[in-house]
Automatic annotation (TrEMBL):
Binding of Fe cation, residues: C105, H147, H151
Name of the protein in question: Peptide deformylase
Metal-binding in keyword set: yes
Similarity comment: Belongs to the polypeptide deformylase family.
Record organism: Gramella jeungdoensis
Function: Removes the formyl group from the N-terminal Met of newly synthesized proteins. Requires at least a dipeptide for an efficient rate of reaction. N-terminal L-methionine is a prerequisite for activity but the enzyme has broad specificity at other positions.
Amino acid sequence: MILPIMAYGDPVLRKVGKDIDKDYPDLDILIENMKETMVNASGVGLAAPQIGKAIRLFIINATPFSEDDDLEEDERTFLANFDKVFINAKILKEEGDEWVFNEGCLSIPDINEDVFRKEKITVEYLDENFEKHTAVLDGLAARVFQHEYDHIEGILFTDKISSLKKRLIKKKLENISKGKINPKYRMKFPLLKRK
C-alpha cells in the first residue's frame, strides 16, 4: 500500500526515533509498504518518520545511482545491489574529508541544496530478520545512509545548509507545509487549511 509522505513542518520529522524489536506489530507489512511508497515517489531512501512513525527504521534502494556514468565501475556495481532495510542503525565512525552533493528529500519536494557530509562511515544495524551487521560505506552509499539516518535523529537536510540558503528557501518551505505545492506522490501536509 502506498502511504502518504509527511511534508516539511510535520512534528514527527523532528522526533528522534525509538528503537524497535522483532515484536514490532506488522513490521514486514510496514517495510513492504515503505518500499512501495518509496518507489512510487521515485526515491532512493525512505525513513519511518517520513510516513509518520517515530521509530528507527529506514530503507534504501540506491539502484538508480548505478546508472550514473560519472561514477567508477565498482561504485556503480555496489549501488546496483544496495537495496537494504536498516533497523536501529548507528553510525560508529565518520572518516575522510567532507564532500558536497546536491540533496533532495521526499518530505521537501522541489527543493535541492548542496550538503557537505563525510565521505566514509562505519555503521551498525539490524536487517529485517534482526540479524546484526557492521558495514563500511563510502561515496553515494554513505551519503544516502547519512541522509536517512538523519531522519531517525529528527534532522532534515535543510538543517545542514547555510543560514543564507535557509532564508532564500523559507517561503518555499512554508508553502510545502501548507500544501501549496503539487507533488507527484501522496503527501500529508501539517498546515493544510481544511475547508
